[in-house]
Each structure stands twice: as C-alpha cells, then as structure tokens.
C-alpha cells in the first residue's frame, strides 16, 4: 500500500525554499502595506514569496541586524589595513591581489567581492595619481617631437624576482605611446627601442627628447663638457634627427 503524503502548502514552500534577500526599498514597501493597508504577515509572505519570519524581521527592524556576514566578509574586515596596504603595493590591481591573498592567507576571495571592498582604496589611489600627474601640457606641432625615457619594475618570472626595464616613447602632439621591455637599459637597448618606435609609428620625428641618462652620454675631455656618446650621436646623424637632453623628470 502506498503511504499518503501530506499536501504541501504554499507557506511550507516559502519556509523551506532558498532564502531571499530583500533590499531596503522592498522592506519599506512591506512596512507601508502592513501599517497603512493592514495586510497581515501571512498575506505579505505570500505576496513577496518569502517566509513569515522574514516579514517579521522586516516589521520589527531586525532584518539587517540578524544577517550574518560570510567568512570572506569577516576576513576582509579583520585584515582591513593589511589588505589596503597590499592593494597599494599591487598598484590597484585586484587580480594579483586576489592571488596573493590566496597564497598568504589560504582564503579564496571572489574577485567581485574584493573589487567592491577595495573601491574606496581605488578612489584614493586615483586621486593621488591625478594630483601627482598634474602638469602643464607642452604643445608641439605634428611630427615635431618624440620624448623617450625608461621605467623599471621588479617582476616575478619563473619564481625569480627580475628587474624589467621599459623603454617608453611618446609623440609630443598626439600623445601616442609606444613601449618595449628589456632586461637592461644599455645603449643597445635604447637604440633598439627608438628604432622600434619609428617602425610602430610609421615615421620619424624631427626631434628626440631624452633626459641625461648615462647610457646616452659621454664626456668631451678637451672641452670638459658632457655630450652624447659616440654610438647615440652616430644613430642621430644616421637618421638625420635633432636630439635634445633635459634634466631628469623635467623634459
């Protein structure tokens, strides 16, 4: 004989189903319907497809208080200052920060959660960068000038910390940028970077502007002055360019 099964009511389904999170505006509507229109808890639970306990929490203003934080949220709050510092060390990139947190703390934080948590840090970093980069724009004619410089960054390559040097060139009029990575910034790397920029931009500028980098400079002992070294000067003459050197960070 098959056993009889009790019919399942709609309220039982609400009680047993997955919990539904109500936002602030929905909770305000529930309160208004209860206080102004006199709707009961059972009716509201049916209308909004939630449990009666959820409706009760909305009405007695304990809904938010009773919500428990996830382990990941508790971890982020507990290590607030440390993660903030790590975010700055990763230059505002959450993907490598997520990987570092997993390696150091054995916590796998979701990328979207981490991005939301770091949003205030991102705004602060953006404001700092805007103030640091604020400068007077130096205007040139099209094709007149290309500025060249090097930056450097320590990266982990093959589980080994390696310093990478980035040749960067920028056109004075359009502000278009070309960059290429090297393991050093010797004269050969400079010349290869400049020539690669010519191919990338599809032409030659009239003037090359660099700072007083030692890889490009030599000393004229007769005149007791510092000038471009023989290799760089030969490169400039070969392409028929004019070269200008400036103080560091003041092109």
List keywords for this structure.
single chain, 251 residues, alpha/beta, Nucleotidyltransferase, domain 5, 3 domains, five-stranded mixed beta sheet, 12 helices, elongated
Compact description:
This protein is α/β, with parallel strands linked by helices. It contains twelve helices and seven strands.
Molecular structure report:
The N and C termini lie far apart (94 Å). The strands form 2 sheets. The protein has a 5-stranded mixed sheet with strand order 3-2-1-4-7. The chain has a two-stranded antiparallel ribbon with strand order 5-6. Helix 3 crosses helix 4. Helices cover 47% and strands 20% of the residues. It has 3 domains: 57 residues; 62 residues, no CATH class; 102 residues, 2-Layer Sandwich (Nucleotidyltransferase, domain 5). By secondary structure, it is an alpha/beta fold. It is elongated and about 100 Å long.
Large-scale geometry: elongated
Largest sheet: 5 strands, mixed
What is the chain-wise order of helices and strands? HHHHHHHHHHEEEHEEEHE
Distance between the ends: 94 Å
Q: Can you lay out the helices and strands and say which pair or pack?
A:
Layout: H1 10-16, H2 24-36, H3 41-48, H4 52-59, H5 63-66, H6 71-78, H7 80-89, H8 94-105, H9 111-117, H10 119-133, E1 145-157, E2 160-171, E3 177-182, H11 187-201, E4 207-211, E5 217-220, E6 225-228, H12 230-239, E7 242-246
Parallel strand pairs: 1-4, 4-7
Antiparallel strand pairs: 1-2, 2-3, 5-6
Helix pairs in contact: 3-4
